[in-house]
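User: I'm putting together notes for a lab meeting next week and I want to include a structural view of one of the chains we've been expressing. I don't have a solved structure, so I'd like a prediction I can at least talk through. The sequence is below, exactly as it appears in our construct file.
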Amino acid sequence: MRAIFHCDNRWGIGRSNGLMFHLPKDMKFFRETTSGKTVVMGLNTLRSFPGGRPLKNRINIVLCPDDLETDAVHVRSPEALLKEVKKYPADDVFVIGGASVYRLLIPYCTEVLVTKVEADGGADAFAPDLDADPAFSLVSESDPQEDGGYVIRFCVYRNLSPKAF
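Assistant: Thanks for the context. Below is the predicted structure for the 165-residue chain, given as structure tokens.
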């Protein structure tokens, strides 16, 4: 399992249940990376999509303890989520948010794809700071590039000791 997100320079990932930046290159990277794969999210992330509908061309798994009317696969507990995720090839499963789902699942991820934005987005939701986590190693980082008026870098972190599930 892997995770994917963009963050500001404080590891902020969102504000008011939305993205902080309009980043066309990052959105293209997200679409191309996750298309045809399985994406795992919480209810607030699902609600943040247009019309609150699951992403097209992907298997959508939503962690939510309450009843949920959606075309997505619905799981009610972290234990049920980990059981469900085992049904899919590990490299084809991407955790896509929100903050509580990242905190829960990043320890199980073998790799985390992070687009770092050189800005402060005024976030109210944060991902774990992988630079400060000794379990993670930065294994690649792109050259800086412009995207939507911001400087970004595509980074890959490897989990040196992912939890088994």
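A couple of points you could mention at the meeting. The chain has one domain: 21-149. Helices lie at 24-34, 43-48, 78-85, 99-105.

User: Perfect, that's what I needed.
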